[in-house]
Amino acid sequence: MMLGWNSLKNSTTHYGKMAILLHWIMALLLIGLVILGLYMVKLPIGLQKLKLYGWHKEYGILALMLVIVRFTWRLANQTPSLNIPILEKIAARTVHWLFYVFMFALPVTGWLITSAAGLPVSFFGLFVLPNLVSSDPQSLSLYEEIHEWLGYGLIATFFLHTAAALKHHFINKDDILRRMLP
User: pTM of the entire structure?
Assistant: First the structure.
């Protein structure tokens, strides 16, 4: 890749530095949020659980902000071509769009949970986001269930995506995975 602005942008064959950076930051952030979410819900109510919930909310809002940046960057850039069979191409595009749905819907449903619980959503103490809905215990349960199932969907999609990337790298021996490596 060339140095300078052009290397930030995608080409017809490779992802640019910005897309790669956003991909890996989001991957690490989302994996961390899923692990934290699965761990914290099993804890008894106490200071540790409340602290972890606070981190989960703050990093969830960071994920929402980053997915907006990532989606905007994706729309403003070309997508490298995929020289794979049509059914694999459809599957790859579907999985990528599912990731965007999960990356947006999970933080929003988390925000809805907090709003329905009548609690504030702080962004690392820098500012407090407005509640999306009024405090409502019935809605809270619904939002929690939706958030949980979206999380399971994200996990399934992550495993599908990873398996496909590894298949392309080790079985097909093509450059699909290498295009997203720094």
Answer: 0.93
